[in-house]
Design goal:
heterodimer, A: 12 strands, B: alpha+beta, rod-shaped
């Protein structure tokens, strides 16, 4: 994927760029808001990663400008500000996701991947499939190999999110935010316990493991080979 | 003194008022003078016309007779009748040479100082002339009196204005100086100083009261800032020291596997420290009150249900039990995200410190237009001596010091409750512990639904 990274701190920029390159992406780096805006307007990118506070033109201004000119490229906003208002402000300016510094690089990679392959908004499938697993979003029904599986509402949401991001890593924080709407980090391992219950229910009807733990990053739902 | 606003205002008013008095004096003077002169001339003209009439009816003898008679009446007008060649015929103005019409003459009688007299002369026939006049000293006298009176009034007004202004500005100046002194003292570091009040409840007293309240708030904020700085300095020292040791270990370790292990432990420590910072920032943000702008009607019962559902499996796995009871929606004006976090912190706190097999029960009931959240656990409770500090930042019970935790969970709960105007009560049940958070009815009546 072709990515744009707008980040003024040279150490952070170099580290993030290397990590993204190692993950197989092509990264253009802009060290100031002006360069960032020029690149964002000129080149087609799959995902843009904007630091909120960069010299000359800040990240929010870049975001508003490119959104106003009709660029719909997914944007991940990075910020050192962790306030609720800051998050809301960023999303309202047109960001697709928001990550507070300092962050784990695995978290950034997972979020960039999640953004890039997001299906276009017009495409809204009502049934998701992965191997022999099938979930019907309208009837809220789950079947595996034809056998029905009863899930709690929250477990269903969890599975739906994993299916929508099948093949990609989703982090614990991403799950907390999108499934529970928790924008803070509880000490209790609620994600782990829900995942293990979901795994147990999926395993009860037989078949190979679908939800894999990715060490140091999160989870990944993969179709068996 | 004249640098003060009140003194300048008083001076300005005095000058304005004096100018007013001056203008009024001038107008009065001119009007009075015109009226007096008009009256004076009218009287003389009428008299002269009457004598001319006499001449036409009675002839010269009649006029001479009339002039002599009228001239003898004391305090009245002066008269004179002159004949051809200026021969004086009657009246004591007879020796005066005057043209027809108005003129001013000087007449001196024996032994008296010369009088200035305004004379009006009318020709009678070809050769005779009758004159009527009066001393215009009287008009001048009135003019002089008027000038004197208005000068005195003017001086009085200016004097009063200046004295009043001076007095008023002295009073205001003294009280404003007290405020300035207080501000200076505070700048110099005496944060305890307050503006003195007179006790009269006037505008300056109200200003002083408001300033004092502001100063109380600033002092409280400063105190809490100082407290937080101290707490951070003390309480982050331990985890930072641990982090340092781990990194030293990793650096010194010859074995790759050990190195990785130490590095991973160091990362966990670092995440815990960053978590503490995030919690501190969040508490500070909540305490600033800025979130209040985003308040909306929030169903506390639904929020509690979500939290209980999220935590029940983890609680079960840990051998604890999480129970929820609410029969109806309980709306409060609030921030859903912060209320969720408050509930999460309370639940986690109860699960963590309640001991093995703890049963945690959450109840949400509507009370009037407000709502009450009650969380009870079957744990060991909190010693009386430590209850007062339970919600302080970084405070941890003696017996929990060895367990992981930042000591910020309940501080955040307290900050959220405070932001929502809710009261927190805690008490030991025998056995167990109860936390009650009572939300007052919203100031704005909630419109149910949205």
């Amino acid at each position: 994927m072709k990515l744009l990274l707008v980040e003024d701190d040279r150490d952070v920029a170099a580290y993030v760029r290397r990590a993204l390159s190692e993950a197989g992406h092509t990264v253009d780096l802009a060290g100031s808001g002006r360069d960032g805006l020029l690149l964002a307007a000129a080149e087609p990118y799959d995902v843009m990663v904007l630091d909120r506070m960069v010299p000359e033109i800040d990240g929010l201004a870049i975001l508003r400008t490119i959104r106003a000119s009709g660029v719909r490229t997914p944007v991940l906003l990075l910020t050192a500000l962790g306030g609720i208002d800051d998050r809301v402000e960023g999303l309202e300016a047109g960001a697709d996701d928001y990550l507070v510094k300092p962050f784990a690089i695995a978290e950034l990679l997972a979020r960039v991947n999640a953004l890039a392959r997001r299906p276009p908004p017009t495409d809204a499938p009502t049934v998701l499939r992965a191997g022999d697993l099938e979930i019907d979003l309208l009837q809220r029904a789950v079947k595996r190999g034809g056998a029905r599986i009863e899930l709690q509402p929250r477990e269903f949401q969890l599975l739906e999110y994993l299916m929508r991001h099948a093949g990609r890593v989703v982090t614990r924080t991403m799950l907390l935010e999108s499934v529970w709407d928790f924008h803070f980090d509880p000490k209790t391992n609620i994600v782990e316990t829900h995942i293990s219950r979901l795994r147990a229910k999926l395993a009860r009807v037989g078949g190979p493991e679908l939800i894999h733990t990715v060490r140091g990053a999160g989870y990944c739902l993969r179709e068996p080979d | 003194m004249f640098g003060s606003t009140s003194a300048r205002l008083a001076a300005l008013f005095t000058i304005g008022f004096a100018a007013g008095v001056l203008l009024l004096g001038l107008v009065t003077f001119l009007t009075t003078r015109a009226a007096l002169i008009g009256q004076f001339e009218q009287r003389i003209r009428t008299e002269a016309a009457a004598l001319a009439q006499e001449y036409r009816v009675e002839g010269l003898t009649g006029v001479a007779q009339a002039v002599r008679e009228r001239d003898r009446t004391p305090g009245e007008l002066d008269y004179g009748l002159v004949g051809p060649g200026g021969a004086s015929l009657a009246g004591h103005l007879a020796g005066v040479r005057a043209k027809v019409g108005w003129s001013t003459v000087r007449v001196s009688e024996s032994g008296e100082r010369p009088e200035k007299i305004r004379v009006y002369a009318i020709a009678l026939g070809q050769n005779y002339q009758v004159m009527v006049g009066d001393d215009d000293e009287r008009i001048e006298q009135v003019e002089r009196d008027l000038v004197v009176m208005f000068t005195l009034a003017f001086l009085g007004v200016v004097g009063l204005g200046a004295a009043g202004g001076y007095g008023l500005s002295r009073v205001a100046h003294r009280r404003l100086a007290a405020i300035t002194d207080t501000a200076e003292a505070i700048i110099d570091g005496d944060l305890g100083r307050r503006v003195p009040k007179k006790g009269s409840g006037d505008d300056l007293d109200r200003l002083a009261a408001t300033l004092n309240r502001m100063l109380d708030r600033i002092e409280a904020l400063m105190e809490s800032l100082r407290q937080v700085s101290n707490d951070i300095a003390h309480d982050l020292r331990t985890p930072l020291t641990r982090l340092r040791q781990r990194l030293e270990e990793a650096a010194a370790s010859p074995n790759e596997a050990d190195k990785t292990l130490s590095m991973e432990a160091a990362l966990d420590d670092l995440d815990a420290i960053l978590g503490t910072f995030a919690a501190l920032l969040r508490i500070a943000q909540i305490e600033s009150g800025a979130r209040r702008a985003a308040f909306r009607p929030t169903d506390l019962a639904a929020t509690a249900r979500t939290v209980v559902e999220a935590f029940a499996p983890a609680a079960e796995d840990a051998g604890a039990w999480l129970d929820f009871a609410a029969s109806e929606p309980a709306f409060v004006e609030g921030d859903p995200e912060l209320l969720t976090q408050m509930l999460v912190n309370l639940v986690e706190n109860a699960l963590r410190h309640g001991g093995p097999g703890v049963i945690v029960t959450i109840k949400v009931v509507r009370s009037g237009d407000g709502a009450t959240l009650t969380l009870t656990d079957t744990g060991p409770g909190v010693p009386e001596s430590e209850r007062g500090r339970l919600f302080d930042r970084f405070y941890r019970l003696e017996r929990s010091r060895s367990t992981p935790g930042s000591g910020l969970g309940l501080a955040l709960v307290s900050a959220v409750a405070h932001l929502h105007g809710a009261e927190i009560d805690v008490r030991n049940l025998e056995p167990g512990f109860e936390v009650r958070v009572a939300f007052q009815p919203a100031a704005k009546p909630r419109s149910a639904g949205h």
